[in-house]
Design goal:
Number of strands: 8
Largest sheet: 5 strands, mixed
Strand content: 25-35%
Helix content: 10-25%
Number of helices: 5
Distance between the termini: 38 Å
Shape: globular
């Protein structure tokens, strides 16, 4: 398995992780399908979403793959009046990642990041390793600390 920048960053910070791979084509697959292909509980597999706030700043939100981001809760979590997800075409130039391979670790610039609050009590968390077809599993507390993230209720009820 090839090593991604995400894996290198984790190693540089002494964070142990387990890599996982899944079969894929050129297009991103649904996060729930990824969890199924990995044989993992979807509550432990997180997707990384990027949004722009009303003030023009960018924010990263990580939520379980089966859930939907509540934009009002997300805005409140980052102190914005409103946030909206960025267009897919803007993802690569802004973050260095493509849709389906976006990781909270190793973006071109570290944006304020918020994980859905349940991550704090999970024994493990799985996020993209920065490339479609690769995921990493690690301790959620170490991941949250690494990216300087906070936690909040972010999902639609």
């Amino acid at each position: 398995m090839e090593k991604t920048n995400v894996m290198r960053i984790l190693e540089q910070h002494g964070i142990s992780y387990t890599p996982h791979s899944y079969p894929h084509g050129k297009e991103a697959v649904d996060g729930v399908q990824v969890a199924q292909m990995l044989g993992q509980n979807p509550e432990y597999v997180y997707k990384t979403l990027v949004a722009r706030g009303k003030s023009g700043g960018f924010f990263v939100f990580d939520i379980p793959v089966a859930e939907e981001l509540d934009l009002k809760k997300a805005a409140k979590a980052v102190g914005e009046k409103a946030v909206e997800l960025i267009p897919v075409k803007d993802l690569l130039p802004l973050t260095g990642y493509v849709r389906g391979g976006c990781s909270p670790i190793g973006m071109k610039k570290q944006f304020p990041t918020v994980f859905h609050e349940i991550a704090e009590i999970l024994p493990t968390i799985i996020v993209s390793a920065g490339k479609i077809g690769l995921q990493i599993e690690c301790d959620p507390d170490e991941l949250i600390a690494l990216v300087g993230a906070s936690t909040a209720d972010l999902i639609k009820a």
